[in-house]
Amino acid sequence: MGTGPGLGEVGQYSGRRNSLQGGKLRESMSILSRYLLRLHVAPFLFALGALTGIQLVQQVARRFSDLVGKGLPWTVIAEVFLLSVPFIVALTLPMATLVAVLFAMTRLASDSEITALRAGGVSLGRVMRPLLLAGAVLAAGALLFNDQILPRTNHRLRTLYTDIGRKKPTFSLSEQVINEVQRNRFFLRAAEIDPATFVLRDVTIFDLADQERKRVIYADSGYLALTENQEDAFLTLYDGVLHEFDRAEPAMFQQTAFRRDLIRVRGVGNELRRTLTDTFKGDREMSICEMDEVVRSAHRERSLAEGRLVVTRANGLRGLVGLAGLEVDTIAAMPPAQPWCRLQQGIGDLLRATPTAAQAQDTADPGVLRRLNAPAREAWVSGATTGLRATDDAAIQERIRSARLRAASYEVEINKKYALALACFVFVLLGVPVSLRFPRGGVGLVIGASFVIFAIYYIGLIGGESLADRLKAPATILWLPNAIFAAVGFGLLRSASRAGTAGPRAG
After folding, report:
1. Is 169 or 10 the better-scoring residue by pLDDT?
2. Which of 74, 124, 374, 484 has its CA 20 to 30 A from that of 355?
3. Which pTM does this prediction carry?
4. Is residue 505 domain-resident?
5. Within a domain: residue 312?
């Protein structure tokens, strides 16, 4: 009998050896992943800080003249520029990702480290795995940032600008130009302004404070005065006419002539008074779900208007043959929310102990019928009861177009938030093969390629936004730059993988 090890002992030894080899391989891969990620951290932070700083300096240069001369404390000026940082970061975050990938991977390729890794059996896909994972994490973080933090800071910044605009309004009044007395709410133009008596000649006022309607006032002359506490302004206008437009009904117009009219503009005094609550929000001050609610409401309004248009035309034909007119539906189903909002609502319901009855009903029946708000519903009912005429056709079509434009403008902002967040992942996918194809490009490649790639991306984003706002293309066109660059990245990766090297060396 031999004294060597038995088959069972040999099998156990072989299993332990394979296990040790597998453990060493996993450990080496973990070390490689950490090494690759660590190489990207410093250039990413540097690029993010530098690009954000450059954009912030430009913002300071544009806004500095609007802030000086108003006697503002330095803390308020600092707050203005601090609140300007988030919307700058929303653009510079994808740019910093691209710069970091190009810089780090070009360095690895120029030092032949990528070639050494691939010679040792490490595939290009394995090298990219931790980078793509980091890109996905950055994209998710950018989406949360764009959805939750950015709208809030934009709202605070707009409110702060409004408060600053109310301070010392008379110092900023100029002749022959439209003066913003209250930011985004009250504008004044005068052909002549007497700086001593504040007598105004040939006055035009644009009053946009009311969310339901807007007013344009024309007057031959006027007089501007401040109250004793210097907080409110009084405009006394003479010999003019008031034009009033309904925002929901563009075809509705009312004109009123007057000999003397008094307008009070509140909160325009010399002291900076901070607004504590401001419920008005623009599209860039809303989260994705808030904008989605507006989009769904606009689609519902469009559906009702299209139904009314069909009934209007049908009633015109029925009237010719002596048949009774059809009734207009005043109830429509709210379209379902998008998945991101349903996910947030589900998480919110889990965090709440007991959802309200309305939330429970809405969750149980997503297609629940929701009535229009009271003023809109009364308008629809009055239209149905007073009889529909063929002359209503143009007004209804204008309502349909207005609803489409409103939905499109908010859909553009929603898709822009998604597209900018996804760009963090796409630029990783594109930056790695570009770096490997030009391994000795150096800093020149990093700067040049970053500028060209993001310029093309930004032009595509702005062009798609313009087309979607004018209803020339769907809002999803904002995803096109991501799709193009992702396709280019995949193509370059396949070419590099088939070549079996890190790519051709430059000169």
Report:
1. 169
2. 374
3. 0.69
4. no
5. yes
Q: Is 228 exposed, middle or buried (0-12, 13-18, 19+ CB in 10 A)?
A: exposed
Distance CA 299, CA 334 (A): 8
Query: What does the DSSP assignment read for 151-204?
Result: HHHHHHHHHHHHHHHTSSGGGG--TTSEEEEETTTEEEEEEEE-TTT-EEEEEE
> What does the radius of gyration of the chain's CA atoms come to, in whole angstroms?
31
Which of 409, 426, 449 terminates a domain? The answer is 409
Asked whether the predicted pLDDT for residue 359 surpasses 60, the reply is: no
pLDDT of residue 77: 85
Cβ neighbours for 79, distance < 8 A, ≥ 6 positions apart? 160
Structure-derived torsion over alpha carbons of residues 108, 112, 114, 118, reported in degrees to the nearest 10: -170
- 3-state DSSP assignment of residue 220: strand
Domain membership flag for residue 281: no
Tell me whether residue 476 is in a domain.
Answer: yes
176 with 198, same domain: the answer is yes
Q: In total, how many domains does the chain have?
A: 3
Segment 38-42 mean pLDDT: 92
Q: Which residues are paired to 203 by β-bridges?
A: 190, 219
Which tokens go with 68?
């000086």
